[in-house]
């Protein structure tokens, strides 16, 4: 009997008191191991699955479960990112053989506002914070952007809507020492201010201001264009006409010069060739030799 009592006492000493943790689906949670240091080994288990195993040299080995890929060990604590519903359950931290058992509970927070998140002054709206899978003992409160103390209800009625309701509202879920929040932004639009124009002295009502209020000129418009547009068009046309006149005058002058050049070229006479004149007397001309007379051929002798 004494041996059984002693064995139960040793198990109670080796198993320290655990802690209950709460997290939001899709959020991040840190599970405290319960020890500040260890000498030999540190292990984290989720149920019967090994998540991490750290030796005395600080070398970390991850487990084969999917949870290990979304987790990391920091200062002996287990940080889980992108929390899923499958992460709920019992967690064990073994530090040098001492076991610390913890539990993780998950819930989802849904915030909404009716009729919409864009409101006008003096409207009515309802803010709702719904917690699915809420564990027992948790409190749900709303905190407005312009007050420090949250309301003690998961539903808030805005009657009427004021400018102080504009901004980010926080739905705060408190479970023991764990506190989670979900934000909701509300935009309050003020009605546009309208200014009345003073009446004219002659009693005539002014015409409503259209899109051309700031561009009305004192001078009348021609074909919908302002006077400076017509001035620019006239100056452009004048410049074009001057350029055309200059081109025509230049062409006429070129033609005249061409005709004058051809005329001067036609009036020039060809120059006679100059030969060298010798001062010595010319040699006497040789007498012409006449053709020699040919002897008459002998007449043929005819028989008598």
Structure description:
Strands 1, 2, 4, 5, 6, 9, 10, 12 and 14 form a nine-stranded mixed sheet that branches. The longest helix has 41 residues, at 227-267. The N and C termini lie far apart (209 Å). Helix content is 18%, strand content 32%. It has helices spanning 2-14, 227-267; strands at 15-16, 20-24, 29-31, 42-46, 49-54, 60-62, 71-74, 77-80, 89-95, 98-114, 118-120, 125-132, 138-143, 155-158, 167-175, 178-189. The chain is elongated. The protein is of the alpha+beta class. The model is unreliable at 1-15 (pLDDT under 50). Among the domains are: 16-107, Sandwich (Immunoglobulin-like); 108-189, Immunoglobulins (Immunoglobulin-like).
Question: Could you write a compact summary of the structure shown?
Answer:
The chain has 304 residues and is α+β, with helices and mostly antiparallel strands. The chain has helices at residues 2-14, 227-267, and strands at residues 15-16, 20-24, 29-31, 42-46, 49-54, 60-62, 71-74, 77-80, 89-95, 98-114, 118-120, 125-132, 138-143, 155-158, 167-175, 178-189. 18% of the residues lie in helices and 32% in strands.
């Amino acid at each position: 009997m004494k041996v059984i009592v002693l064995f139960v006492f040793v198990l109670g000493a080796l198993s320290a008191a655990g802690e209950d943790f709460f997290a939001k689906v899709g959020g991040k949670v840190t599970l405290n191991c319960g020890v500040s240091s260890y000498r030999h080994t540190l292990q984290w288990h989720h149920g019967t699955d090994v998540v991490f195993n750290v030796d005395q040299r600080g070398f970390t080995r991850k487990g084969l479960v999917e949870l290990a890929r979304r987790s990391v060990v920091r200062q002996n604590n287990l940080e889980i990112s992108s929390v899923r519903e499958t992460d709920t359950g019992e967690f064990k931290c073994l530090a040098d053989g001492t076991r610390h058992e913890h539990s993780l509970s998950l819930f989802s927070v849904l915030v909404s506002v009716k009729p919409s998140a864009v409101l006008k002054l003096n409207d009515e709206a309802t803010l709702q914070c719904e917690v699915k899978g809420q564990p027992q003992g948790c409190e749900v409160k709303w905190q407005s952007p312009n007050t420090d103390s949250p309301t003690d209800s998961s539903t808030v009625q805005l009657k009427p809507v004021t400018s102080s309701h504009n901004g980010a509202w926080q739905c705060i879920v408190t479970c023991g020492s764990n506190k989670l929040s979900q934000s909701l932004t509300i935009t309050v639009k003020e009605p546009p201010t309208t200014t009345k124009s003073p009446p004219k002295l002659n009693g005539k009502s002014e015409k409503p201001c259209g899109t051309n209020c700031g561009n009305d000129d004192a001078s009348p418009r021609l074909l919908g264009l302002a006077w400076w547009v017509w001035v620019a068009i006239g100056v452009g046309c004048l410049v074009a006409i001057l350029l055309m006149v200059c081109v025509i005058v230049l062409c006429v002058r070129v033609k005249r010069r061409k005709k004058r050049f051809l005329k001067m070229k036609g009036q020039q006479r060809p120059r006679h060739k100059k030969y060298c004149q010798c001062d010595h007397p010319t040699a006497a001309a040789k007498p012409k030799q006449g053709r020699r007379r040919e002897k008459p051929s002998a007449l043929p002798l005819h028989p008598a």
